[in-house]
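Bit of a strange request maybe. I'm writing a small parser for structure token strings and I need a real example to test against, not something I typed by hand. Could someone generate the tokens for this chain?
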Amino acid sequence: MNSFPRRSSMLASLVVLACITQAVGQGTYTSRWIQDKPFYKPTGNEATLIGMIKVAGQVPPNKIIDMTADPTCVKLNLNPKPQTELILLNEGGLQNAFIYIKKGAALDNYQFEIPTSEVVLQHLNCRYSPHVLGIQKLQRLLVVNKDPTQHNTHPVPKNNPEWNQSQPSEAEPMEKTFARPEMFIPFKDNQHPWEKAYISVLEHPFFAVSNEFGSYQIPGLPPGTYTIVVWHEALGEQEIEITLVPGESRNLDFFYQGEKTYVTPKP
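Reply from user aminoacidic:
Good idea to test on real output. This should exercise your parser:
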């Protein structure tokens, strides 16, 4: 019996597998090759997640920033002793915590439209504003310099290309996108080393950042079971699994215990 056709078929399969493996390594292989997921279409029975991020107990004080290397930055900050934004509290409510859906059946079974609106990251008063934000994969990011001084924007991702670009005062916004999901990409400013921000890139729109009072809201969730994560750069990460029923508005609060959960952020 001639085994040549079988060997040829096996060889062809190996070649295809090798090509796929190479494409994955180069970041050119998309999930559409494996499974053409349908886009999620709202049904009107989606759930909403709302809550507070709170801190009990003492937390370390924010550090004083020396901005004298750029006199313009000194003038822009009315506080003669500007401080870092590591831990911002308002009556126990924690600002700049990132809350997101880590996994769930809806994420496995659907893909989600890329928003046409852009996400804006500003250099404002020689700070990044906002300090923490989220964006969907391939959604446009606009980096804007609002200050009368030159700034530098330098993200340090692991799964996306790194870039490092300076931006004079009144320059046009920089437009960027991220092709791969990646959590908590550090942004720095090489000209103003105290400027820091974190951007998370997700495949879905189910994320939020706690506001100045510590509250957040994630609407439009398809009913189902999810793993919910809250992350803070200094206080660490927590996660919980919950099940949402159609049309539900679920309150979900997270609590940190101050210095007991404090971690030193990476430089």
